[in-house]
Amino acid sequence: VQLVESGGGLAQPGGSLRLSCAVTGTIFEINFMGWHRQVPGKQRELVAGITNGDATIYLDSERGRFTISADNAQKMVYLQINNLKPEDTAVYYCNVRARTSRVNNYNSYWGQGTQVTVSS
To answer: What are the residues facing 56 on neighbouring strands?
Structure first.
């Protein structure tokens, strides 16, 4: 199972970015997909998540600016970030909880991360 993020880069304050994550490999079922971010010296934190029932959760401080969505058929998850702020600068990681067969347990899988830098 591999996760590949894209869509990061340099953006200006007030702008928007859409991060994408493609999940490939043998997947029987995904029950959670999420986006985390990490800045140097701080712990990685969950900013948004979505279940296979389309229930969403958000970091309280980012609710309203961040929107997570998923295409389960295509095994894609997206994070829309609006009204970008310099403090959004971080490496953003995609994470899924999935199992590769009906009899296997769920495992957590991570992408390599995509850098988001917000600066004028």
So the answer is: 50
Q: Report d(CA 38, CA 43) in Å as an integer.
A: 6
Q: In sequence order, which residues have a C-beta less than 8 Å from that of residue 55 and are 6 or more positions away?
A: none
Residue (of 1, 9, 47) closest to 56 by Cα position: 47
Helices (H) and strands (E) counted in the chain, each on its own, are 0, 11
User: How far apart (Å, rounded) are the C-alpha atoms in residues 99 and 96?
Assistant: 10
Query: Is residue 62 predicted with pLDDT exceeding 90?
Result: no
pLDDT tens for 86-98 read: 999 999 999 999 9
